[in-house]
Amino acid sequence: MAFFTPWKLSSQKLGFFLVTFGFIWGMMLLHFTIQQRTQPESSSMLREQILDLSKRYIKALAEENRNVVDGPYAGVMTAYDLKKTLAVLLDNILQRIGKLESKVDNLVSNGTGTNLTNSTTPVPSLLEKINVADIINGAQEKCVLPPMDGYPHCEGKIKWMKNMWRSDPCYAEYGVDGSTCSFFIYLSEVENWCPHLPWRVKNPYEEADRNSLAEIRTDVNILYSMMKKHEEFRWMRLRIRRMADAWIQAIKSLAMKQNLEKRKRKKVLVHLGLLTKESGFKIAETAFSGGPLGELVQWSDLITSLYLLGHDIRISASLAELKEIMKKVVGNRSGCPTVGDRIVELIYIDIVGLAQFKKTLGPSWVHYQCMLRILDSFGTEPEFNHANYAQLKGHKTPWGKWNLNPQQFYTMFPHTPDNSFLGFVVEQHLNSSDIHHINEIKRQNQSLVYGKVDSFWKLFVGLGFPYEGPAPLEAIANGCAFLNPKFNPPKSSKNTDFFIGKPTLRELTSQHPYAEVFIGRPHVWTIDLGNQEEVEDAVKAILSQKIEPYMPYEFTCEGMLQRINAFIEKQDFCHGQVMWPPLSALQVKFAEPGQSCKQVCQENQLICEPSFFQHLNKDKDLLKYDVNCQSSELAKDIVAPSFDPKNKHCVFQGDLLLFSCAGAHARHRRICPCRDFIKGQVALCKDCL
């Protein structure tokens, strides 16, 4: 009996527990039933509370972001992005509550057999009130796109984004959501293909950059120390040191003539590909033993100009240095540029370095193309720059096919108007006192002078080679006349081995076309050296007159500083087509069949200006110049725009990279955008400064 006693006691306790539990359960069921009868009121109150809290939360966020332009496209992680998220969350919660109400109502109705007279009235969906789907897609706010004039690639880029924005998750990270407005914002603020929307907040990184101003420098010691790290720069260091006084005087003089304040200080990368070991060239090693110096002259003058103008420069002459400078983006396989402060804003490079730069950056290369400025002695014409067109024409050159804006190529002389003229400084050995008294120097008529200084020379005779060198300009600067050999027929890649493979079809009419066209007599005599009578007449004329030293302003230190500063301030290939030179400089000329725009502009003492072509590429544009197109077509060819005067048929350019000053049509007349220029500063128009 004793064995079973605990079991009985335990059973009694269990029974008591069950009775108590049943009572509590019954009370809870009663409470639950009562609560369900009043559920409509509680749901409504809950909904109001949620909405009220949501409004207060959103208002608080708006207060915290009062300086941010709110809207569905105000940018990633702004208040509106949180509101979109909140709207979706609220909609989801209230939909679940609605389903729960329906189930409880059905349960109560079926359980009691009573039709509730106070059943919940259907609440209009929150979707109808705040339009969640529209908020997500941005349809509730109109996105008015500004005019795309001056941004020729914008429309095409938007079409590409519509099809490809999901190809890389980085686009969504920048706020792209499939809507046209988000495409436009990305293309205007991240990749700079479209105009900026006026109501958008400024990029904080760009604003910070603008606050950093360039101040001119009047001491080259820091630059000299910076370049001491490289033995390859020895020749350039010596040139900079030798010309330091002239450079300092030039920057001070320029600052007095034009306003050099309130200029943005740029982060500039200078990469000398020709001096890298990987290039295989020995330019630095042979600089002191008769090797070519043209590239070193131009590089040293460019670096000095950038430094004196107050910009931050980093110089690279090896792949290791290049990778170190660009390490933030090397290996980045994203289709979007990296977020944050820019590593560089301008990149000066040569053709050899260009290939190295592209290989080093990989996919990130596309985001730095617009910053490139390529030092290119002989120039690159549009038909060689455009990869598909060059291949179509059968051009075999290792130097072209870069698909850049042709004006990004910087030349030694202003021989290719499709490119930009960078130039260099001619080292003048005569000081101001020497120039003043040069006519007092006794010069004898003798054909051979041993070990005499520059001031003893009367005549500098060109022998036909090298082409377009600095020596004739140095001679002219020292009071010498230059006999410039005429080439008939002109020399080009069609008949001269030296030019084969170079990305240009330019024809040289003399050994030094610049001296022939822009200087001329009495300093330059372009003659046929094979014509003895012509040579004798020229020499007699030279000896019979006093020739003053002459230095074109563009080849002085001050002229180069002025030109480079204008390019840095005005040239912009990253933000659509910036209108520079100003349209006030445009003068339209019509070339005869077989004549190029370069030729017809030059005949009228003007320069062909390729940036103006876009303003002559529609039939309505040509009406201003009495050209009435009865019919028209688009063509991807270097001869467009042009027109046939017989049948009034116009051909417009279908590829902006093929606008060319060099192209000539056999039957049509080219429509040519010419401009004026400052005498002694060919790169700049009279209204350019």
SSE blueprint:
Elements: H1 5-37, H2 39-64, H3 79-112, H4 126-130, H5 132-137, H6 154-164, H7 170-173, H8 180-189, H9 204-210, E1 213-214, H10 221-227, H11 234-242, H12 244-257, E2 263-264, E3 267-271, H13 294-308, E4 312-316, H14 319-325, E5 346-350, H15 351-361, E6 372-375, H16 382-385, H17 387-392, E7 409-411, E8 420-421, H18 432-436, E9 459-461, H19 471-477, E10 481-491, E11 508-510, H20 513-519, E12 524-527, H21 532-543, H22 557-570, E13 586-590, H23 597-603, E14 607-608, H24 619-622, E15 631-635, E16 642-644, E17 649-653, E18 669-675
Parallel strand pairs: 3-4, 3-5, 5-6, 6-7, 7-8, 9-10, 10-12, 15-17
Antiparallel strand pairs: 1-2, 10-11, 13-18, 14-18, 16-17, 16-18
Q: Main β-sheet, in a few words? A: 6 strands, parallel
**What's the Cα radius of gyration?**
37 Å
Distance between the termini: 119 Å
Question: Segments where pLDDT lies below 50 for 5+ residues?
Answer: 1-9, 66-70, 74-80, 112-130, 135-141, 446-452
Count of individual beta strands: 18
Spatial shape: elongated
Task: Indicate the structural class.
Answer: alpha/beta
SS strand fraction:
5-15%
Q: If you average the pLDDT, what whole number results?
A: 83
Q: Count of helices?
A: 24
Strand order of the largest sheet: 4-3-5-6-7-8
Q: Portion of residues in helices?
A: 25-40%
Task: Give an overview in words.
It is an enzyme of class 2 (transferase). Helix 2 (39-64) runs antiparallel to helix 3 (79-112), helix 6 crosses helix 8 (180-189) and helix 12 packs across helix 22. The chain is of the alpha/beta class and 689 residues long. Among the domains are: 28-130; 223-376, no CATH class; 432-443 and 452-548, no CATH class; 572-675, no CATH class. The chain has 24 helices and 18 strands. The termini are far apart.
